[in-house]
C-alpha cells in the first residue's frame, strides 16, 4: 500500500500553519466509514505471540509498550451502553532486538469475576445500570433499586506508576497493581483506605524525584471538595502501595451538590492547576441512578452559563492562591504541558467550546453507519490545542482593565477585572490546517525531558472521525505540523520513547497501536521516527484488537 504520510513542505517536511480564531468547530463531514468493529469484544491472548515485522524496529527500543482499554462489551445476553463501560483488556507489546511479541489479558477485577460468574452485568458502569437479579422475588428486586451504586473496579483507562509499581486505573477509588511482564492482576488497592477521597484520576503527574501527584473528590456534609493528593516516591516496606499519601489541599466546589467533572489536571515545577470546567455532576441524580434505572452518565451535563475557573495551588505549602483565573466555558480532558516562566504560569491543553461529547460515545453511536454516523460526528465539537497565560505576581496595585500578559509573540490575554479576579483568553496552538484533520486529542510530550519546562514539540491524534484517524506532530516554533495518515487506519494515543543519550527534544520514536476495523486481523504496532515523523517499521498482530484509551512505555534498559 502506498504511503500517504503527510509531509507537506517539499523541502523541510513541515506544513506552515496560519493562525485562526473561531469559536465554533462543528463540522459538516459526509461519508465517514463505519468503525463498529473498533468496539467489538475480543478474546485475551495470555501467552506471547510473534508478530510480523515490516521495515525496521530500532534495536535501541527495549521494553514493554503497555496499553489499556475496554475489550468486552457483552456479558451473556446483556450489553454495555457506553464505550467507557467495557471490561478492561490490558495489552503488552514486548520490544527487544528489533522483534516484537504481543499478549493481552482481561483485568481480573471483582466486577469482571462477578459478571462472568452470573453471566450478566452485575456492577453498574458509567453508562450502564446493573438490573436487579431476575432470580429474586418482586419485593427483593424492588428494594435493590434503593441501594447506592457501588463503585466499579473496572480499571480500563490507563497504566500508571506509584513508587515504581505499575497499576491500571479508572476514576473510582479502586486501582489494581499489575505485573507488567505477565499482565497478571496482583492486588486491588483502594484510595479511600489511605486518604479521604471517593476516587482519583487516571492521569497523575510525577516530579523528577518520583513524587507523584493526583486529584480526587470527597463528599461531605459541607459539600463536594476537590483534593490535591501527594504520594511519596519511595516505599518504606516492600509491599507498600499508597502508604504515606496525603491531601495537600482541598478546594470547595463552587456548587456544593454539583461539582465539576474532570479527567486530569496540570502541574508545573511549583504549582498544581485544577481546571474547574462547566461539565457538572448532579450528585442527587448519580446516587439515585439505580432507583431511576438510569446510567451515571445521565447525571453528567454541560452548563455553558458558567465560566471555567483555574485554581492554582502551591505544591510545597498546599496554599490555594487567592487569585481566581476565569475563562469562557470550555471542556478539557487532557493537558499538554504546564510551566513557569518570568512570573507567568503557561498552561497548554486540548480544549473544546462544548462539553457534551462525553455522552456521544454510546456504543450504539460508534456502531452507526452512513448518514446516522455522520450526524453523530458533526454534533461533536472539535478539540484543539490552546495556551493560557496566568500572571502569578499580582497585588492590590495591579491595575484593572489592562492585559497583564506582557510576553512577546503571544496572543493570550489576562485582564484583572476585580480584586483577585483575572479573566483569561487563549492563544491557539495551531493554524488552519489542523481543522483538516479534525483537531487534536490524546496529547503527549517528551515527559522526562520537558514536563514542567518550556518545550517545543507535542504529539497527538487527529480526529477526523469519532476516534483518532491520524497522528500529528506539532512544532510550536511556527505552529507547523507533520502528519501520518492512512485511509482505514485508526492509530491510538502516540507515546514518545527517548533514544539512548538523546540531546534534542525529539530524539526518539513514537509508538502507536493502529487498528484496522475493516480489515480482519491486521492490527499493528507502528513505530515512527519522532524527528522526521517517517515510518520506521510496524509489527503486525494476527488478531483483532479493540480501540483503547491510554498507555505507557516501560523502558527495560
UniProtKB/TrEMBL annotation:
Q: Any idea which positions bind Fe cation?
A: 203, 263, 334, 550
Polar residues composition bias: which ranges? 1-14
Taxonomy, superkingdom: Eukaryota
One example of the protein's molecular function in GO is: carotenoid dioxygenase activity
Chain positions covered by the region annotation Disordered: 1-20
BP-aspect Gene Ontology terms: carotene catabolic process; retinal metabolic process
Print the keywords alphabetically: Iron, Metal-binding
Q: How is the cofactor bound?
A: Binds 1 Fe(2+) ion per subunit.
Q: What is the name of the protein in this document?
A: Beta,beta-carotene 9',10'-oxygenase-like
The organism is Sinocyclocheilus grahami
Lineage, uppermost ranks: Eukaryota, Metazoa, Chordata, Craniata, Vertebrata
Task: Give the gene that encodes this protein.
Answer: LOC107586303
